[in-house]
Specification:
With 138 residues, this protein is an all-alpha fold. 61% of the residues lie in helices and 3% in strands. The two termini are 23 Å apart.
C-alpha cells in the first residue's frame, strides 16, 4: 500500500503541474493571489519543480519494489522523502509549503491536495509497516 500511495502521489504531482494556471501565492503586502502563469522570468517556471517531485517519487517506487527488509524499506523511504523535499525548498518567491498551501486554498488546485493526502498516506503506511508484526511464511 505504501508503494501504491507513493505512485499516486507521483501522478498527482504531475497532474498539478499540468494545471499550471492554478499555482499561486500571496506575496507580502498584497491581498490578491499572484499566479505563476502570469509572472515573467524564471519565477514563472517554478511549478516545474513539481515534476521533479514526481520523478523522485517514481525513482523511490522502483527502488522500493525490490526491497524485502523492513529496515531497508524504512531507510529508502526516508531518503525518498528527503529527496521529495529538496524541490519544495528550491522555490524562489516563497517557501514551497506556502505555495502549496496558497495554491490549494486560493487557486483550488485539487491535485496538490490529493498529492498531500497521498504523501501523508505513504508516511502513515511506512510507519505501520515498520511497527506491525511480519507474518511468518512457511
Amino acid at each position: 500500500m505504501a508503494i501504491v500511495s507513493l505512485l499516486l502521489s507521483s501522478i498527482f504531482a504531475c497532474m498539478s503541474f499540468w494545471n499550471n494556471g492554478q499555482f499561486c501565492v500571496i506575496p507580502k503586502g498584497h491581498t490578491q493571489p499572484l499566479y505563476f502563469a502570469e509572472m515573467n522570468g524564471f519565477s514563472a517556471d517554478e511549478p516545474v519543480l513539481m515534476v521533479y517531485v514526481a520523478i523522485f517519487s517514481l525513482i523511490g517506487v522502483v527502488i522500493l519494489c525490490f526491497v524485502k527488509s523492513k529496515i531497508k524499506f524504512l531507510i529508502i523511504s526516508g531518503f525518498t522523502l528527503f529527496f521529495l523535499m529538496i524541490p519544495l525548498n528550491m522555490f524562489f518567491d516563497a517557501s514551497g509549503f506556502k505555495i502549496v498551501y496558497d495554491s490549494i486554498r486560493l487557486c483550488h488546485n485539487h491535485f496538490l491536495l490529493l498529492w498531500c493526502f497521498a504523501l501523508w498516506y505513504f508516511i502513515l503506511t511506512v510507519l505501520l509497516y515498520l511497527y506491525l508484526p511480519q507474518e511468518n511464511k512457511l
